[in-house]
User: Which sequence fits this backbone?
């Protein structure tokens, strides 16, 4: 099973927007660009929403069948480890092995030293096509990287082997993610991570490093865009070099766990993949759920009231909702409007406060982030919420599709 050059990961908290999400991919196809769609959902999301793994598989299958689409699609067991992979095994064909928590734990001495020996042929000035300055590799640097990453890669191998033992070889796509950590990985470190993946026989087709800067949920990139662009381009070159040196899948590519809406780095990503002829996987998080809220707000009446109620509850449960996402949100709490104030706003103002249009004066990144993590509240509304989605599915579907196509797919791929 081989992942296509371009792939796009899309989350769907409540599992109702598979069709409009797929429609966005089809619009790209109409313009001559093939993108594989990957529906991703993590264990944590399943727990919070109360969905199960089979739901995502059904959603994907139904969306694809109803549209008569013949392109590629996958169901991603997102950010899994050995402790929670079990329920995904029957329903996923894409596994994101998350080993970020193991970074910095030391592997056994004999593994470390044999890794350093195996990589020592890279020592010296290493010229990599596409990177201006040669990398200056020393045994110390190899050792440092090994101490940081080898143990984590060994854990990835453990998860990979387990999945393979159940599902069989070549029946699923493997991604390795190290993004949910504080410290970014340099292109040099990426080279050693890839060497370790080769040594551990993990046939990763995508790798999600931690890039420089902050990737907060649902809002734009915060950081040095120029530095990101340079590192992203260098990472692509490192991957190409590693594929030529090591036994790695030819289609290995970067995966950007974007947390959605990293508009200011999209041009750099696009430029780099064009320049190097590289592929990319861009994973977006649950902003589809925010499009649902926008559609509900615009629909007025009881569905607008529902949005106001969800805001009020999210506001009062701030700590509980934000806690699990603390490392990927930055909410200026004192700038959030009180629920009373929010409830006085009309449909358009509420919709625009949530909609990620930075040129709109009503856009409010604090409200957007709070509601982004507030999906637990909507989940608790159960059928009331789902019924509202059903009643307003046309307007919501338009928002879901337009958002993905115009704000994400177009700047990245078209
Ligand atoms: Zn991630």
Assistant:
């Amino acid at each position: 099973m081989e992942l296509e050059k371009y792939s796009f990961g899309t989350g769907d908290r409540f599992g109702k927007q598979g069709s409009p999400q797929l429609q966005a991919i089809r619009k790209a196809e109409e313009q001559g660009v093939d993108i594989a769609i990957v529906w991703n959902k993590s264990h944590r999301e399943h727990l919070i929403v109360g969905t199960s793994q089979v739901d995502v598989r059904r959603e994907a299958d139904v969306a694809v069948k109803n549209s008569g689409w013949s392109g590629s699609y996958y169901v991603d067991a997102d950010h899994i480890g050995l402790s929670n992979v079990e329920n995904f095994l029957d329903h996923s064909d894409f596994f994101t092995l998350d080993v970020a928590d193991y970074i910095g734990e030391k592997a056994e001495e004999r593994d470390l030293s044999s890794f350093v020996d195996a990589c020592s042929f890279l020592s010296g000035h290493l010229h990599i096509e596409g990177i201006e300055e040669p990398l200056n590799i020393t045994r110390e640097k190899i050792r440092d990287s090994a101490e940081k990453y080898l143990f984590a890669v060994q854990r990835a191998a453990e998860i990979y082997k387990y999945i393979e033992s159940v599902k069989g070889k070549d029946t699923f796509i493997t991604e390795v993610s190290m993004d949910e950590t504080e410290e970014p990985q340099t292109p040099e470190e990426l080279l050693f991570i890839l060497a370790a993946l080769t040594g551990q026989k993990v046939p990763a087709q995508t790798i999600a490093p931690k890039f420089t800067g902050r990737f907060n949920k649902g809002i734009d990139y915060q950081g040095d865009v120029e530095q990101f662009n340079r590192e992203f381009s260098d990472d692509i070159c490192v991957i190409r070099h590693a594929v030529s040196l090591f036994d790695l899948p030819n289609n290995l590519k970067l995966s950007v766990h974007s947390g959605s809406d990293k508009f200011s780095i999209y041009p750099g990503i696009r430029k780099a993949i064009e320049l190097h002829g590289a592929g990319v996987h861009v994973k977006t998080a649950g902003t589809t759920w925010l499009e649902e809220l926008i559609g509900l707000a615009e629909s007025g009446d009881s569905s607008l009231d529902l949005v106001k109620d969800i805001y009020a509850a999210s506001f009062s449960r701030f700590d509980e909702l934000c806690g699990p996402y603390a490392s990927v949100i930055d909410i200026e709490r004192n700038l959030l409007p009180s629920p009373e104030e929010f409830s006085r706003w009309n449909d358009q103002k509420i919709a625009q406060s949530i909609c990620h249009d930075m040129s709109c004066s009503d856009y409010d990144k604090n409200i957007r982030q709070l509601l982004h993590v507030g999906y637990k509240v909507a989940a608790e509304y159960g059928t009331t919420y789902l019924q509202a989605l059903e009643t307003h599915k046309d307007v919501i579907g338009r928002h879901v599709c337009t958002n993905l196509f115009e704000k994400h797919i177009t700047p990245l791929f078209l």
Notes: Residues 157 and 200 are 6 Å apart (CA to CA). Residues 79, 177, 179-180, 208, 257 surround zinc ion (CB under 6 Å). The domain at 6-285 is CATH 3.20.20 (TIM Barrel). The first strand starts at residue 6 and ends at 10.
